[in-house]
């Protein structure tokens, strides 16, 4: 007994040594990569046999993905199996993923860890490819923003062209519903476009701002308006009758939109899409207006649009005397000044004029303080107005009158020169009228 | 050996083993996905750009995943084939017998995912449209910047794709950013498609990247020296392309 007790520490140490050896061995063992779950574990079968598609081309040419969302598959439906990972073997075999059923395909991709967003993109790309050939046959060539005016818009649209436009829209709607059925969520669709110049980007942007469940209804109403307005524009020869039809079409669209949107959403949709709003957005982008500022400016600009003969989206559709236009423009300027305050009104003025834009670029390049930039802009604007007015005298606000123009011009130039200093003045003079074409 | 001697020996062995275990645990690496490229270039390519593209692409890709998604992804079979390097990822997919067309789709979708956030920021807005009868030329820097950035981003994404999928890979530009000159170039390239198409595109992309750098430097206010530099870039492009395209 006594001998056993004396051996106990050694026995304990021997036991600990064996345990430690085991632990050391265990932590140095290589780990096998994670393995794919078996198909039946990964995605419970719906009991559907993957559709046999002889080839991707055959299915693309003859049929669309049907309600069961069949995707072009391998030559024969493959048996779905999982390749359990063995050391030195691939983590899984793609055969375990492949299926001609899109919903199942998405499920399996997710089951092996493909991120949700990637799965969505893969499915969209795949379905797009199926529709590509038919869409291409119906799609007009995109017209760049700097194309000649004759290419940017045409009213010479044949009956076949109108049919093609409708067919493209139908095809895209079909593709959208196929994708939505597979993915179980809203999928955006390109807006219908005609060869008539419109701000189609604004419609897509406005629709994207709405809740997903409202987008299809709004897009549908908008596309109907685009189509009918374009069709009438190119077929009704009497100008007054065409304008009347335009008003009716737009009112019908508005009624449809009001059935879907809240009054606030409707107003915002209008502001984002109507030419008075989209053109204002382009003109004032340089001042980076806040939402609140833009809404205030839009109200003023839209009043001016109507006061100067605008009818909904048509600029000066109704003839208005020039004096009325001049008065409306002065009123708009005053209202903008009051709404924005002096600092932001200066930003507004600089944003909407070429001289202001150039002065901002100049200030950015040569680190001009804001105060100097503002003063330089006002001096240069006065000089420009003077030059435009020719022999007539111009007041600082642009109105006629004031001192002798011949005397004013060198005086203003001297003031600007002094404000900028010799080097900056030289750069301003050398660069302010330079225009470059970046095209190769 | 005496009991005392055995005791001392076992004590030393235990100390050594305990030390070894501690060291082993300390240096134990997290499980790496098989085949993931170590030190890879993360969807990078060698083409020139105003931004370090490889890092940018990786950041896009990482940023586009939620932390939960990243954790989940790390322990799945997908992680065993995924690589932040597009070419490596493509090869891993081929190794598990993924059909070539599907490899292309997956790489295209994954590369696109990496650029999505930036593309979203440059999505066309109502202000980007040039109204009919308005001049296409503008001195407004914010409009020019958006247009240039959108086309540079599309070129960058296309170059990343070409690195792993070959020269045929293209990425559509937003309509507001396409110029007539871009369209002409694509038509010329399509007409003369052949083994030189990658080199031709590289020449064009380099020109665009150089112009963008010039634009950033001038901040939209050009001086005569800048105009001369721009002209030199045009000449250089024309000269290099002359050996590939007949009508340059």
Q: How would you characterize the overall build of this protein?
A:
The complex is a heterodimer of chains A (440) and B (248). Chain A is built from 18 helices and no strands. Chain A has 440 residues and is mainly α. Among the domains of chain A are: 1-30; 34-138, no CATH class; 353-430, no CATH class. Chain B has one domain (53-123, 131-242). Chain B has ten helices and no strands. In chain B, helix 5 (86-95) runs parallel beside helix 7 (141-165), helix 6 (100-121) runs antiparallel to helix 7 and helix 9 packs antiparallel against helix 10 (224-242). The longest helix of chain B is centred in the middle third of the chain and has 25 residues, at 141-165. Chain B is elongated and about 105 Å long. Residues 29-64 of chain B have low confidence and may be disordered. The interface between A and B is large, with 90 and 90 residues.
Q: Number of helical segments of chain A?
A: 18
Structural class of chain B: mainly alpha
Q: How much strand of chain A?
A: under 5%
| Largest pleated sheet of chain A | none
Based on secondary structure, the structural category of chain A is mainly alpha
* Number of structural domains of chain B: 1
Task: Kindly provide the radius of gyration of chain B, computed on alpha-carbon positions and rounded to a whole number of angstroms.
Answer: 26 Å
Helix and strand succession of chain A? HHHHHHHHHHHHHHHHHH
Order of helices and strands of chain B: HHHHHHHHHH
Largest sheet of chain B: none
Mean pLDDT of chain A: 84
């Amino acid at each position: 007994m006594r001998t056993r007790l004396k051996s106990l520490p050694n026995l304990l140490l021997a036991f600990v040594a064996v345990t430690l050896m085991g632990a050391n061995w265990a932590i140095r063992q290589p780990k096998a990569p994670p393995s794919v779950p078996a198909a039946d574990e990964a995605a419970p079968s719906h009991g559907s046999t993957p559709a046999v598609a002889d080839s991707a081309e055959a299915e693309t040419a003859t049929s669309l993905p049907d309600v069961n969302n069949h995707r072009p598959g391998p030559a024969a439906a493959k048996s779905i199996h999982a390749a359990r990972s063995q050391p030195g073997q691939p983590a899984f075999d793609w055969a375990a993923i492949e299926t001609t059923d899109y919903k199942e395909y998405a499920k399996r991709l997710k089951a092996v860890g493909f991120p949700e967003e990637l799965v969505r993109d893969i499915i969209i790309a795949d379905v797009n490819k199926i529709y590509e050939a038919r869409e291409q046959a119906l799609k007009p060539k995109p017209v760049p923003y700097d194309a000649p005016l004759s290419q940017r818009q045409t009213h010479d649209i044949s009956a076949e062209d109108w049919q093609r436009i409708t067919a493209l829209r139908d095809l895209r709607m079909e593709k959208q519903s196929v994708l939505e059925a597979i993915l179980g969520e809203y999928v955006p669709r390109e807006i219908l476009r005609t060869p008539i110049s419109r701000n189609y980007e604004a419609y897509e942007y406005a629709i994207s701002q709405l809740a997903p469940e409202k987008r299809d209804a709004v897009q549908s109403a908008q596309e109907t308006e685009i189509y009918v307005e374009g069709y009438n524009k190119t077929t009704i020869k009497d100008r007054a009758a065409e304008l009347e039809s335009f008003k009716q079409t737009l009112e019908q669209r508005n009624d449809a939109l009001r059935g879907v949107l809240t009054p606030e959403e409707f107003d915002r949709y209008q502001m984002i899409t109507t030419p008075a709003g989209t053109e204002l957005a382009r003109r004032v982008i340089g001042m980076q207006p806040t939402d609140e500022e833009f809404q205030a400016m839009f109200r003023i600009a839209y009043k001016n649009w109507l006061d100067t003969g605008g009818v909904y989206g048509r600029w000066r559709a109704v003839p208005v005397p020039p004096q009325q236009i001049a008065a409306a423009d002065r009123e708009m300027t005053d209202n903008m000044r009051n709404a924005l305050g002096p600092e932001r009104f200066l930003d507004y003025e600089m944003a909407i004029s070429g001289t202001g834009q150039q002065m901002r670029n100049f200030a950015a390049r040569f680190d001009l303080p804001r105060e100097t930039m503002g003063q330089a802009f006002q001096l240069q604007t006065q000089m420009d107005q003077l030059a435009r007015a020719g022999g007539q005298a111009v007041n600082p606000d642009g109105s006629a009158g004031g001192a002798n123009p011949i005397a004013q011009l060198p005086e203003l130039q001297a003031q600007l020169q002094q404000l900028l200093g010799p080097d900056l003045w030289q750069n301003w003079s050398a660069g302010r009228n330079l225009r470059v074409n970046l095209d190769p | 050996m005496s009991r005392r001697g055995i005791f001392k020996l076992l004590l030393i062995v235990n100390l050594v083993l305990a030390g070894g275990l501690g060291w082993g645990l300390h240096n134990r690496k997290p499980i790496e996905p098989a085949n993931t490229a170590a030190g890879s270039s993360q969807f990078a390519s060698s083409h020139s750009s105003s931004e370090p593209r490889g890092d940018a692409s990786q950041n896009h890709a990482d940023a586009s995943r939620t932390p939960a998604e990243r954790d989940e992804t790390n322990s799945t079979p997908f992680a065993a084939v995924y690589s932040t390097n597009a070419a490596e990822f493509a090869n891993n997919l081929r190794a598990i017998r993924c059909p070539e067309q599907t490899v292309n789709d997956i790489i295209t979708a994954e590369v696109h995912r990496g650029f999505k956030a930036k593309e979203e920021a440059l999505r066309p807005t109502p202000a980007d449209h040039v109204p009919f009868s308005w001049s296409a030329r503008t001195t407004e820097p914010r409009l020019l910047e958006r247009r240039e950035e959108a086309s540079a981003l599309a070129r960058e994404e296309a170059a990343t794709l070409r690195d792993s999928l070959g020269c045929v890979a293209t990425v559509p530009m937003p309509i507001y950013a396409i110029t007539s000159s871009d369209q002409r170039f694509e038509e010329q390239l399509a007409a003369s498609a052949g083994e030189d198409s990658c080199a031709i595109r590289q020449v064009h992309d380099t020109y665009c990247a150089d112009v963008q750098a010039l634009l950033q430097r001038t901040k939209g206010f050009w001086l005569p020296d800048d105009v001369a530099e721009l002209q030199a870039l045009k000449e250089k492009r024309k000269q290099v392309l002359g050996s590939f395209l007949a009508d340059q």
